[in-house]
Model the fold of this input.
Amino acid sequence: MSEQLGLFGEPADQEPAKTTKRETESRIQYFDLETQKSADDVGGWGNIHKMKLAVGVVWDSIDQDYFVYEEKDAKTLVEKLRTADLVIGFNVIGFDYTVLQPYSDFDLQEINTFDMLVDVKKLLNFRLSLNHLAQHTLNAKKSADGLISLQWYKEGKIDKIIHYCKQDVEITRDLYLYGEEHGYVNYQSRSGNPLQLEVNWKTTNFVSRPTV
Done:
């Protein structure tokens, strides 16, 4: 006897297929990179594309894990970013993508991206650093800076760069999620007064939830 079919052509006694996390959630990737060379090394900030990748780090919301890439893995990093429904970073459009572009055969600007620095500058008409916003919003500070990372690269201390870059990605993620949840981030005026900046960092504004 042929097995009885349900309304949709599946065996009536067969359990419905389980919906995976990937099918119900957007893949958000928080991204940051460190370079091999400084602006002075390449003749100024107009030559960011010549700075070369030292380390890139992605934190993936679906995998709930960090992914680390050195220069030899640059094309794999590009392909990883292309799998995102949304890439989030801080100065990612003006800096990180410009550094990474020489390793890509397509325009990285085509990736759906939200750049917190671009939004903050649009709202305030001036720039604030990631470190400033993290310190006043999350009570967190970066463990190092880009100049120290450049020195580490010259000394071959890649593990130190990876640790530093991971921390930057963690701060980037946590700052965005704080803004998304609370609707504001904190900063300080030049005179030292604590201030709040209202933000509209809702992921649903930047990416459509996949349908199932």
Q: What stands out?
A: The first strand starts at residue 28 and ends at 35. The CA atoms of residues 170 and 188 lie 22 Å apart.
